[in-house]
Amino acid sequence: MTEIRLVDVTMRDGNQSLWGATGLNTAHMLQAAALTEACGFRAIDFTSSSHMAVAVRYFQNNPWERLRRMSAAMPTTPLQFITTGLRFIAWQQADPEFMRLVYRALQANGVGRFVLLDPMHEVPAVIEAAKLVKEEGNAEVMAALTFTLSEIHTDQFYADFARAVGQSPNIDLFYIKDPAGLLSMDRARTLVPAVKAVIGNRPLEIHAHTTVGQGMLASLEAAKLGISAIHVGVGPGGDGSSLPEANRTVANLEEAGFSVGVDKAALKRLTTYWQSVALAEGLPPGTPQNFDASFLRHQIAGGVMTTIARQLEELGLSDRMNAVIEETGQVRADLGFPIMVTPFPQMVMTQALFNVIGERRYAQVSDQVIRYCMGKFGKPTSPVDREVLATIMDRPRSRELEKEPNFPALGDLRRQFGYDMPDEEFLLRAVMPAEQVDAMLAAGPSRATYSPKVAPILSLLRKLAAKPNARDIVIERGSFRLALHAGAAL
């Protein structure tokens, strides 16, 4: 039987898709490490620069410490880092030598696999990033073919990109990344063979979200066409806007005659753990989604749709939602069909909102759209409409942004922060507010253990301790006595 491997996305993409990237902290992950290692996954979709920023900003968790400790606890399962190539936390493209230091630090702290995702599919950018990664370690490098629906993104487009990127000896494997869940079974039947025909014997994986109910079926069809691994979420971290749920994926693959490279008993134990975490922390589990044909047209992610709906409600313009959705498709075409993956969905739909509620189209334009038109996010896959481009660039704000300084050179940043600062702290301070990094360092190491059973109790105690008049808290039951005094940390 043909064997299919699984890549677990629960801690990164599942967490991001379902819980806004803020559902899981280091303690949750450390407690899952041994259970995850026992499953035998091909890799763990573990982190990204935005997830590292969330660790600092929301949890005061040191993301470098998180990597080190998880890597030590999972020595045979590669930890995967997804990146757009030459960016780290900040929106600007960074100095290549700065990124060299980023890739060196990530590999030194345990990253064993990199996904290079360039939303514009710029071949030189991907090849340059792959070269930097390989020069600073021996991690695997996987090139992303980011799927979307447009007149530009044909099977030939993806095959040409894969062929060009595949000329680099630093690309080890590829994956079809479908962040919006747009890939149908029919399209998989043409796309997968087209890509496999140009990548030789290098593996091809699939990462298909289940946002509109297609991800599981597309992944199963891709398995029949020679995909080597399917990306899945475990238990509550799968389905919904996440990836196909792991246990159901295993059952479906076995029903289709495949052997799945995973320990099913270990997977059940891991599923039970994540279910208990979701229940204790109030994290809504992903649920199977019904097919929504309108999504294939507007391609607006659920989180962005919710935000815009709330903004319209606050303005008393809820009745304009359908007009904003229609305008979103036109804005996307105007801007050269950017792939609707962060930050582009937010950018495109916000511009659509401005166009609908404003005096005229493009009367108000966000700084991010101006930067996009300037090429600061990379060269658009298809040219921006000439009239729209002229309208956007012919305004005072555009001329101001043209004068924005580029990302500082590594040497300038070293002089700013001091040559003696450790690389890990330096990399965070270079791209994040100082007060957030200070708070993270002051918090110290993360807790090594986590128990879903006591999590609700600790949450209650934190809320009580936050009350001004809660100076001392004492809990007694039988011979058990817990006393918390003012100033004590929870």
From TrEMBL:
<dbReference type="InterPro" id="IPR000891">
    <property type="entry name" value="PYR_CT"/>
</dbReference>
<dbReference type="GO" id="GO:0006094">
    <property type="term" value="P:gluconeogenesis"/>
</dbReference>
<dbReference type="InterPro" id="IPR055268">
    <property type="entry name" value="PCB-like"/>
</dbReference>
<protein>
    <submittedName>
        <fullName>Pyruvate carboxyltransferase</fullName>
    </submittedName>
</protein>
<dbReference type="Pfam" id="PF00682">
    <property type="entry name" value="HMGL-like"/>
</dbReference>
<feature type="domain" description="Pyruvate carboxyltransferase">
    <location>
        <begin position="4"/>
        <end position="268"/>
    </location>
</feature>
<keyword id="KW-0808">Transferase</keyword>
<keyword id="KW-0670">Pyruvate</keyword>
<dbReference type="GO" id="GO:0016740">
    <property type="term" value="F:transferase activity"/>
</dbReference>
<dbReference type="InterPro" id="IPR003379">
    <property type="entry name" value="Carboxylase_cons_dom"/>
</dbReference>
<dbReference type="InterPro" id="IPR013785">
    <property type="entry name" value="Aldolase_TIM"/>
</dbReference>
<dbReference type="GO" id="GO:0004736">
    <property type="term" value="F:pyruvate carboxylase activity"/>
</dbReference>
<dbReference type="GO" id="GO:0005737">
    <property type="term" value="C:cytoplasm"/>
</dbReference>
<dbReference type="Pfam" id="PF02436">
    <property type="entry name" value="PYC_OADA"/>
</dbReference>
